[in-house]
Amino acid sequence: MEIVINIDDPTPVFTQLMEQIKTAVANNHLPEGTPLPSIRQLANDLEVNSKTVAKAYKLLERDNIIQSRGYRGSFVHPDAKSHCHIDLSQWTTEMLTDCIATLRAKGVTDSEIRVAFGSLMNSKF
């Protein structure tokens, strides 16, 4: 599998990386159990910051596309193919859009929404 990063693309590099890995899994180019390059190796190969690759790997692990096996590395998750089409970012945006629409319908101002959101994001659940 070849990953190509377009630095002129407005899509963040970590998102480009995630999308290409998800596409490769969905198209059977990365079958279950396939080892992935180390964060450092992939960052060097793509000439990007290792923190960018680490962020992509962390989010792919959250989405059950890859799994980390400690010092042995990262591998394609056994259930990866069934999770490739789940987009938590899109789902989050949809949920927040619905919530904001409900609040506005009740007369809550944008400023009040921002203050409440900021307060909740800074609190510990």
Automatic annotation (TrEMBL):
Write the signal peptide boundaries: none
Q: Which Pfam families match?
A: GntR (PF00392)
**What sequence ranges are listed for the domain HTH gntR-type?**
11-79
Q: Which keywords has UniProt assigned to this entry? A: DNA-binding, Transcription, Transcription regulation
GO MF: DNA binding; DNA-binding transcription factor activity
Superkingdom to which the source organism belongs: Bacteria
Q: What name has this protein been given in UniProt?
A: GntR family transcriptional regulator
Question: What organism is recorded for this protein?
Answer: Thalassotalea algicola
